[in-house]
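B., you asked whether I could sanity-check this one before it goes into the benchmark set. Here's the sequence:
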Amino acid sequence: MKTVTIRLIVMAVFLTAAIGVKAQLTGREIIKKVYDRPTGNDQTSILTMTLTNSSGQTRIRKIKQFTKDFGKVEKKIMFFMSPADVRNTSFMNWSYDNDNADDQWIYLPALKKVKRISSDSKSDYFMGSDFTYDDLGDRKLDADVHKLLREETLNGNPCYVVESVSKDKDYMYSKTITWIRKDSFVGVKKEFYDEDGELLKILEIKKVANISGIWVIEHSLMKNVQRNHSTDISLSDVKINSGVNASMFTERMMMRGL
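And here's what the prediction gave me:
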């Protein structure tokens, strides 16, 4: 009887351990939860973008942004409101729920023409900021191999730390490392490494708000550590499910402006 009892205890310990291991999320499962986080049917906001160079000089830009979920595609359009040298510039991004690459366009008033962003230009920086065109799009879940590195607390919030390595050897980043809050599955920090494996940029989420049940990143800072340049983005006047018109997301609207 004693031998049987000991065996049962040992089996229970192993079973509990096995369940614990199985219950731990994989890197891919964590990133998928980030992607699957509800964003609402549509969203509008005002972006204040502050660019700071290595000398501490700043440039401030105001942008009106609209996004709408069409089911199989999510569309986003941005209109630059100020200053005068970029006013009426617009950018549009369509992200698909399949493996198709994002479609992107930019309208420059001086050229009076909408230009499609080619795949070769996705590594270019957007309007002098520290965000590439690729950063503004929707990275496909299985474009990378995701690995859970560890769990740690960041700014008082328990986080998963996940490494993502591109399956494409020619991709602009050799890897990224993301800190993801366990309670909301919002990424609150991300490190970008260049093709040589050197740290290139750090994205820090300064403020997250729950608006109408939707987690919204209201303040973020992208710091390019190699060129000592940063881009600060603050959102205001955020509206969710306000009924954004589907006709907003066209090349004609890009040229017409607000």
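One thing to flag: The CA atoms of residues 55 and 78 lie 28 Å apart. Otherwise nothing jumped out at me.
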